[in-house]
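Fig. S4 source data, part A: sequence.
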Amino acid sequence: MACSLVGSGIATGSFARGDSAGSDSTATTFLLVRHAERDTLLLGPDPPLSAAGLRRARTLVHVLGDAGISAIYVTEFLRNRQTALPLAARLGDSLRVLRGRNFAEQVGRLKAEHAGQTVLIVGHGDTLPELIEALCGRKVPPFGRNEWDLLYVATIFKDGPAKVLRLRYGEPSGGR
């Protein structure tokens, strides 16, 4: 399935709220963000978010709170859970964990379980490009080392090519 990179812009408002009962089962939307800024002062393999990261997580609530999200996926790391938790609390949703790097298997399951829905995935700078490629068969530019403000919108159509929209949300990060 072909995929096109539609463009880039600033996400400053909220998406129109989708009615899950009347959702278009021919299109599935995946919203993909990198975890917010981590605290670099704490040592260890699983640092929490910094103050800036916590602010960005709250911004995600403002940007995606009305997007009609049906499910939220994170990795097992604390920074990913902390990025998604404010939005999950607003939506009354729980977080689902994606483990491993078998992106083809993950994408197959996500597409099957969430056809016609809108899904948020909070990942990592090194895994999200691979996941997007598995979703639609097209490479996207890699994340910069300190690039935390990217928001990808991948729309997968039942019949036809997928589309990827590259946006930015919240305060600009220093990764560009």
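Fig. S4 source data, part B ends here. The two ends are 30 Å apart (CA to CA).
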